[in-house]
Amino acid sequence: MTRALVALGLLTACSGGSDGPTILPETGEETGTTDTGPTMPLPATVTIDPPDGFIDVAPQVTPFVAYSRAIDALSVSSATIEVRNRAGQVLETEVVPGKSGTGFALDPQVPFEFGETIQIEVSGVLMADGTAAPDVSATYEIHPLPAYTQVIADDQRALTVVLRDEQVTVEPGFGLEFTIDAEGRNTGYATYQLGPDGQFITPDEVQVGLRVDTLQPNGRLALSEFFDGSGDDGKWGTGDDALDRVIDVAVDGMTETVTDLQVGPDGSPFTDDDIFTSRVETTYDANFEIVTQLRSLGLGFDGQWFTNDDPGLTILVNETDKSGRLVQQRIFDDLGPDNVPFDNTDVLDRYSDYLYDDVGRLESVRTFDPNDVVQQWQSRVYSSQGQLSQLLTLVGPGPDLDWFNSDDSGSLIRFSYSGTQIRTRETLVLDYGADRLWNTQDDDIELYGNISFDSTGIYSEIHFFDGPGVLAQWFDDDDNEYARVLFDVARMPRAGG
Predict the structure, then answer these.
(1) 471 contact partners, CB below 8 Å, separation of at least 6
(2) Which of 214, 204, 133, 210 has its CA nearest to residue 181?
(3) Mean pLDDT in the chain?
(4) Which of 186, 232, 226 is nearest to 208 (CA)?
């Protein structure tokens, strides 16, 4: 890892008087007379590693703060150190003193999330002589989820994965083999139909599609091309492949317009015989969090995007607090009589309020209809270590119209962790069973995913199961596996960045 240092503090020496020694910058030699007055110490400096602004930082990073001389260890505490994520949540961090007494490591009690933004502030530390140490801060971008290498679904159930901001569905009986660039980013995939042996990348399967992605310099999508035929030469990835679909991304400042189109009979995109299937226009803030979004599932009769005659028109507006946390999301489904978005004539379809606990963790999301009646209620429970342990989504209060009691309908996702606080399993429960209580023996489990890691804590594989096998017991060796996801761990960062 390339190390860079951020030095704070003025590096100037103070002499004892106007006729004291002068240091020649070229040679370091003294001239003139020697002053016998007191000598002031050099001002303290501080560095942090990885440095401020570092990207592609590993999720298990332990930043180190180093000073130019000894510090007062008792002055380092939770009052002098603050570690937050993008949402403003304070992350529990252990301070590990350095052996020399001149610094300390910041050891997060839970590995940082992939793709997260981490902000560190260190202030109020004292030097060993009681003087104030310089403050230091840093912002890191944690490496996104490792690139996919393969995603495979058996012939019974589809699997959906997220590729950047897009949901990609793998149909039953198909598999995807991904391409990866030199920076470890997915740049497309080949689609295969599994053969009789049910195994992926074996001689009996047939390639049926190819996706090629072009990325922007910041790693976001610029263009996707989908091919559904290998052309006259019978070889995929050559110039005569049959182009079927295109996703085009146009960028204007912090606004992205994503257009999805079906290529017409002439085989060339952006011509008159193409069929536009959707367009999404999204405005982002500086952290690429969504501010507003317009979405249409096709052009209406007027030939203009984002007007009332577009099918599937939705208008989204996000409201944040001073720290940048999402506090309300409003969805509109009609532009009103003026046919113009983002004004007070838009017709509200629903809205969601986001509530946080005392340490900034998202605690619940309530979705209301236009009459302020709750339609859906999602709540989150965290462990004593601050990790998400369960996500309960209720879609109705039941006949008694009261939420969070035995007649509510919904689903529960449970999260399990290893002794090193790394997530190892996610379990989806669709029903609470006859006892009408969640997290009991008769819960109706729908499926679960077991997550594997390499020796450094990076995702390597996820295996999905949707049945307990012949022994009728969940979470044992004979459970029915229906899909798996393999990740590229070789190109993930292993230390600070």
Answers:
(1) 478
(2) 214
(3) 85
(4) 226
